[in-house]
Amino acid sequence: DVQLQASGGGLVQPGGSLTLSCVASQSSDDEYSIGWFRQAPGKERKGVSCIGRHYGGTWYSDSVKGRFTISSDNDKNMVFLQMDNLTPDDTGVYYCAARKSPFCAQTALMYDYWGRGTQVTVSS
Question: What is the pLDDT of residues 17-56, one digit of tens each?
Fold first, then answer.
C-alpha cells in the first residue's frame, strides 16, 4: 500500500503562488506515478497534473498549463506542485494520488491510493 499526505495549501491573492507537497510512503518497490487533483465546491474531482516519477513524464490540464509545474524528489518520495499566477478558479481542495503504474493518468478512476486533501483558496 501507499500512504499519501498532501500539504502546503492556504489563502493567496490572485496572481500569487503556492507550492503543494505530497509525501508518499510506499511499502513495495513497485513504480508509482503521482497525480494532483482539484475539487471545487459542488464539482467533481478533476485532474490537474501528474508525473511518472521514474521516467519523468508529465501531464498538465489545459487550465493550468504554463502556470503550474510538477516535480519529484524520488530520494524523499516527494512530489511538488508549484502553482504560479493563481486565479479564483484554482480554488478547491487539492489531493495527491498514487497509481500503480510508471505512467501517469488524467482521470481519478485510474488511481489506487489517495491522501487527504489540502485547501487552496485564491481570493482578494
Answer: 999 999 988 655 568 899 999 999 999 999 999 998 777 7
CA dihedral 122, 10, 74, 39 (to 10 degrees): -60
The Cα 90–Cα 84 span in angstroms is 10
Closest CA to 96 of 56, 47, 54, 63: 47
Query: Residue 79: is its pLDDT beyond 90?
Result: yes
Contacts of 82 (CB under 8 A, 6+ apart): 17, 19, 68, 69, 70, 71
Cα 78 from Cα 123, distance rounded (Å): 28
Dihedral class, residue 106 (left if φ above 0, else alpha if ψ from -120 to 50, else beta): alpha
